[in-house]
Amino acid sequence: MLKKTILFSFLIAAFSSSAKNLNCSATVLDVQVDKTGRVYAYLKGIARDAYLCDLTPENGENEVEFCKTVYSTLLVAMTTKNNVMLWFNKNTNEECAKSSWANLYSDHGFYHLRLKSY
Hints:
By secondary structure, the chain is an alpha+beta fold. It contains two helices and five strands, in the order αβββαββ. The protein has helices at residues 2-18, 64-80, and strands spanning 22-33, 38-44, 47-54, 83-88, 110-115. Strand 1 and strand 2 (38-44) form a beta hairpin.
């Protein structure tokens, strides 16, 4: 019984350490919206031309209000030259650097954005 308890504790510890969230800081150099409403940005320090969300999602991929807020926050950050902080909850890559044209929403679990003023 003790061996099972130790093994169970080890498995929970291993799982919880791999399930932590990742946050990354970036400079917004470019914001794009395509004709279907998909929002992309060049986030220096994270990814070039990264997909963030859809302003008009047909499949319920993201909330429209969340995407509107992301879009306006990116524009403010780019205009004021303030950085943003993004949070991810899928540890497909524990590094902040992602590939160009990465889908930050579905592939990396982008779920939170902060405008940094310092």
